[in-house]
């Protein structure tokens, strides 16, 4: 197929990956589209960062720098992957916190009392909000361990 026909075909058919408990690929014709669009409500956060794990971490780091909360990208990423595999809606309904009625929630699996106590002004009050969850957890880790970088297990 000539390059111009391939380019035209690429503009007409875009693939959207729909993630959830399973993944499905859906091919949609988008006539006249010049870029692929994601099946999310927004491709960027309110602050302009990508609405992805990378963007959430970078936005959190910017807020943390303003507030004097220590931590690095690698420290946050390592803990997010261990705690939630990067799922901002993760919830632990089986540990001792859950048994006591306060399940761990979000990217860094924070319980509501800890989230409320270490909430960072300027972020959402929703523990499932990725940036609010990361900054509150890092604020807590800084108070207890010196930094999220010093956390290598459940905390």
Question: What labels describe this entry?
Answer:
155 residues, alpha+beta, two-stranded antiparallel sheet, 6 helices, 41% helix, 10% strand, disordered N terminus
Structure summary:
The protein is α+β, with helices and mostly antiparallel strands. The chain has helices at 3-12, 53-67, 73-84, 96-99, 112-118, 130-145; strands at residues 13-18, 24-29, 91-92, 104-105. It starts with a helix and ends in a 10-residue tail after the last helix.
Structure description:
The chain has six helices and four strands; from the N terminus they run H-E-E-H-H-E-H-E-H-H. Strand 1 and strand 2 form a beta hairpin. Helix content is 41%, strand content 10%. Helix 5 (112-118) crosses helix 6. Residues 1-40 have low confidence and may be disordered. A two-stranded antiparallel ribbon has the order 1-2. It has a two-stranded antiparallel ribbon with strand order 3-4.
Q: How is this fold's topology laid out?
A:
Blueprint: H1 3-12, E1 13-18, E2 24-29, H2 53-67, H3 73-84, E3 91-92, H4 96-99, E4 104-105, H5 112-118, H6 130-145
Antiparallel strand pairs: 1-2, 3-4
- What is the β-strand count? 4
Class by helix and strand content?
A: alpha+beta
Oligomeric nature of the chains: single chain
Read across the widest sheet, the strand sequence of neighbours is 1-2
Basic shape: globular
Q: pLDDT below 50 for ≥5 consecutive residues: which ranges?
A: 1-40
Overall radius of gyration: 19 Å
- Report the end-to-end length measured between terminal Cα atoms: 56 Å
* Helical coverage, percent range: 40-55%
SSE ordering? HEEHHEHEHH
- Main sheet summary: 2 strands, antiparallel
The number of helical elements comes to 6
Mean pLDDT: 81
Residue fraction in strands: 5-15%
